[in-house]
Design brief:
Cytochrome Bc1 Complex, Chain D, domain 2, mainly alpha, 31% helix, two-stranded antiparallel ribbon, 1% strand
């Protein structure tokens, strides 16, 4: 994994150094118009933080890029190789695998509701969605490529040539490649689960057992909602939960350089959590039962372990109720809103 400074320099070159005079006049909206994003009921407005308008062409361009392994040096690894749509765009293995079987640094995160995220990756090392693609494409253990060469490889082929002209009025380049990927990823929304139906007034959406689990989840004794609250069930903060205290992974410290951040990782959303095993940054917890057991135990001792991780007692029935509730967080419709043509 590249250092934070190297990633920042690379991001600046791609996001600003490649800007052409035509860009200064502002982007054009393609003939198909703006992409009609279906936002889940009860969600806050989508932040207006996209670098370019999300048009039908830019979103479709981003989706085509997301599933194309030619973004990697040897043409074997796509974004979708570690982010499976049927697993809430998460991975299925402990450590994500790059080209030539090289192991990545961590377990790949799920991808949804990204428009509301203040930072990305488990340590928050990338501040914008437009920069999100740069790190894995350049990382020698992931795609091991150069983003400019990746754009050149695809720029004269359809659908890339046609969609780039429709979306941006220019051929595909690294500058537009990252923006198209960001456009597509902003359309990945999670918010259509049985839990959502229940919180929006459908009292029949959850069984009695699942409602007991929800009450446990929100109880002061367990305190799950302290970190997994809000519409996206995450506080977007960084916590040391006493997991694998002897691990050499510095967590948030890798970015902040503050020793107090050692072992702290970004709180994941619990949406679709039944689909996203294995769990935690290192994928060491294989099941929801193991996750609950970890928090019930209070975790391992660590100098900066969160004071919120204190442990609790659960009967077998209460544990089953809690896990039953967690299964209600699975979306009942696809996260991907881009219909094939």
């Amino acid at each position: 994994m590249r250092t934070p400074v190297a990633l920042l320099v690379c991001a600046v070159l791609v996001l600003s150094g490649c800007r052409r005079d035509a860009d200064l006049a502002g982007p054009s909206v393609d003939v198909d118009g703006l992409f009609q994003l279906d936002v889940p009921p009860g969600f806050p407005p989508v932040p207006d933080n996209a670098a370019y308008p999300m048009t039908d062409a830019s979103v479709r361009l981003g989706k085509a890029l997301f599933f194309d392994p030619r973004l990697s040096r040897d043409g074997t690894v796509a974004c979708a190789s570690c982010h499976f749509p049927d697993r809430a765009f998460s991975d299925t293995v402990v450590l994500s695998v790059g080209i030539e079987g090289r192991l990545g640094m961590r377990n790949a995160t799920p991808l949804f509701n990204l428009a509301w995220h203040p930072a990305f990756f488990r340590d928050g090392g990338v501040p914008t969605l437009e920069q999100l693609a740069i790190a894995p494409i350049h990382d020698p253990n992931e795609m091991d490529f150069n983003i400019h060469e990746a754009a050149e490889r695809l720029m004269n082929e359809d659908p890339y040539a046609q969609l780039s002209l429709r979306a941006y009025g220019e051929p595909l380049s690294a500058f537009y490649l990252v923006r198209a990927l960001a456009s597509y990823q902003r359309t990945l929304l999670s918010g259509w689960s049985r839990y959502d139906r229940f919180r929006n007034g459908d009292q029949t959406a959850l069984t009695e057992q699942e409602q007991r689990g929800l009450a446990l989840f929100n109880s002061p004794e367990l305190g799950c909602g302290s970190c997994h609250g809000g519409f996206d069930l995450t506080d977007h903060q960084y916590h040391n939960i006493g997991l694998n205290a002897l691990s050499t992974d510095p967590g948030r410290e890798r970015i902040s350089l503050d020793p107090q951040d050692h072992g702290r990782f970004k709180t994941p959303s619990l949406r679709n959590v039944a689909l996203t095993a294995p769990y935690m940054h290192d994928g060491t917890l294989a099941t929801l039962e193991q996750v609950v057991d970890h928090f019930a135990s209070g975790g391992e001792a660590a100098p900066n372990k969160s004071p919120l991780i204190t442990g609790f007692d659960l009967s077998d029935q209460s544990k089953a109720d809690l896990i039953a509730f967690l299964h209600t967080l699975t979306d009942e419709r696809p996260i991907d809103q881009v219909e094939p043509r």
